[in-house]
Specification:
Layout (H helix, E strand, L loop, with lengths): L21 H7 L12 H12 L1 H7 L2 H6 L2 H26 L8 H8 L5 H35 L3 E3 L2 E2 L5 H21 L4 H26 L7 H6 L9 H7 L2 H6 L16 H29 L4 H5 L4 H10 L2 H35 L6 H4 L10 H15 L8 H26 L14 H20 L16 H23 L9
Antiparallel strand pairs: 1-2
Helix pairs in contact: 2-9, 2-13, 2-16, 3-7, 3-16, 5-13, 5-19, 5-20, 6-7, 6-19, 7-8, 7-16, 7-18, 7-19, 7-21, 8-16, 8-18, 9-13, 9-16, 15-16, 16-18, 19-20, 19-21
Length: 511
């Protein structure tokens, strides 16, 4: 383990991992195989698809593009972000093909960086990756909670008043139940998760087709014309038009933020240097098409935008107006609710793996506890419980501010975006030399993808610190930057107090 090695030891860079025996390849990277490799190429692609859960992600965050620009922000913003994130996936795929470990991007940052600063590069990237995984899992489960409250309230006790008040304690208790359920499924049913992911893909496709056919055929609230759907821009944010459109991209950025989380499953995949890169890129094309298939019909039956932005969750109301009944709406929303829980299970699984991997290299306080694998369940159970406890504690912020979900989703996107950018930037700065031996090397196309990926990252980081509307109030201000800075200060302080002297980074060739 790296905790026994000396900091900044000089060694030769490991060659590209091309061994078809994944366990031998992992041993060459310095790790003992501890998890079962029970996923095929198709199954890892399906897990990547469920991690994103595009219809759910787009449904729970539709408020942002509605405020930022309306139909233009919803449809064209989604397409623009998907193009950028495909470049992120391709760039990460090239690097993962060479360094396929559960450590993911922080391991890659260490191996790609020059020897004199690889430790600090992997430390920063690792904390960004772990915090991003945990907070995006938190935001998924919290988003599911708020979405479920919105779905329940399609039934009204009186006109305009839902049957569930949505008091902070009610919201937190539902969030607690969903979080415990996701952790129970992920830990106790690990060997069945590939089958669950496969079922979730077909469930999603069938559910989306049922939704779009029903709302377009019924359309009790009327239909918009194609010109309005594809060209109407309506700024309700208070920002200048261009920046308002950009702020609305949180919708798409959130739905695609899980792109690199699948890398943490590399040690449970049969041929990770090939399967994981292909799955990441192929899934993005699937997600792009699925997102358009879901969004365009919704915009065609959309009620007045100003009316929608006064709702915390606009999609349940859109479905209710389109079907003309609460029962019809809840029937169409059921596939999204189930998908939301399955997405939470996948995010819980990925977050536990990256937390475990970072602890395995000695970077998390109490690492000897969190690096333990429960071989009976075949999961890093302690790391999963650590991740769960952190999520439940952060969820308490909701009692102080209902803008908590904005902070969770924003900081999750920011941390993951920054962690993805780190190895890409280092690889580009060092001439892309190390990745040329990988089985997913893209040549000049990869270079273009690197540039686009970093440009998107440079835009996304400040973008997701911004309040959705201005002037901002206590309830509408974006606390993502506060959480992001707090996480970085804590990790930086831990490195200064302990990591500088003790953290050696991932295992080296000499180790």
């Amino acid at each position: 383990m790296s905790s026994s090695s000396k900091p900044d030891t000089k060694f030769d860079q490991l060659p590209g991992v091309v061994d078809n025996n994944a366990d031998d390849a992992l041993a060459n990277l310095g790790y003992k195989p501890e998890l079962s490799r029970n996923r095929s190429t198709l199954q890892v692609a399906f897990m990547s698809f469920v991690l994103a859960s595009v219809p759910y992600g787009l449904a729970t965050t539709l408020y942002y593009p509605l405020v930022g620009g309306g139909p233009v922000a919803i449809i064209w913003g989604w397409l623009a972000v998907c193009i950028c994130v495909i470049c992120v996936a391709a760039s990460l795929g090239e690097i993962t093909s060479v360094y396929p470990t559960a450590g993911g991007v922080y391991y890659q940052a260490f191996m790609l960086a020059p020897s004199n600063w690889r430790r600090v590069a992997s430390w920063i990237c690792g904390w960004l990756y772990v915090v991003g995984n945990i907070t995006i899992t938190l935001s998924v489960n919290f988003g599911t909670t708020l979405f479920l409250v919105g779905c329940i309230n399609v039934f009204e006790s009186e006109p305009g008043v839902g049957i569930l008040a949505g008091e902070p304690y009610q919201v937190y208790l539902i969030f607690l139940g969903i979080t415990l359920l996701c952790n129970a499924i992920s830990s106790l049913g690990n060997k069945w998760l590939p089958l669950l992911d496969t079922a979730a893909v077909f469930w999603t496709l069938i559910g989306v087709v049922a939704m779009i056919v029903t709302i377009l055929v019924m359309a009790k609230g009327g239909r918009r014309d194609a010109k309005w759907v594809f060209t109407h821009f309506e700024n309700n944010s208070g920002w200048p038009d261009g920046w308002s459109f950009c702020v609305g991209l949180l919708h798409a950025g959130y739905a695609t933020s899980a792109t690199g989380m699948i890398i943490s499953m590399c040690e449970e995949v049969q041929r990770p240097s090939i399967q994981v890169p292909r799955a990441m890129v192929a899934t993005l094309f699937m997600n792009t098409a699925c997102g358009l298939l879901f969004l365009i019909p919704i915009v065609f039956v959309m009620p007045d935008i100003v009316e929608l932005i006064n709702l915390a969750q606009p999609v349940p109301y859109i479905f209710k107006v389109a079907t003309g009944s609460s029962g019809g709406a809840i029937g169409l929303l059921t596939p999204l609710i189930v998908l939301a829980v399955l997405c939470g299970v996948c995010c819980t699984t990925a977050a536990s793996r990256c937390t475990w991997a970072f602890a395995r290299d000695g970077a998390i306080p109490g690492a000897k506890w969190w690096m333990v694998v429960n071989h009976k369940l075949d999961v890093p159970l302690n790391a999963m419980m650590l991740s769960m406890v952190v999520q439940l504690l952060l969820g308490l912020i909701y009692f102080g501010s209902t803008a908590a979900f904005n902070a969770f989703s924003g900081v999750g996107v920011m941390c993951l975006t920054a962690s993805y950018a780190a190895p890409i930037a280092i690889s580009l700065a060092t001439g892309r030399k190390q990745i040329r031996e990988g089985q997913f090397y893209l040549g000049p196309v990869g270079l273009v993808c690197n540039i686009v990926a970093l440009a998107w990252s440079a835009l996304a980081l400040p973008l997701f610190c911004m309040p959705t509307v201005v002037p901002a109030t206590v309830e509408t201000v974006n606390y993502a930057s506060v959480v992001f800075v707090a996480a970085m200060l804590i990790s930086g302080g831990w490195y200064w107090m302990w990591g500088y002297r003790n953290y050696a980074g991932p295992p080296t060739h000499e180790d």
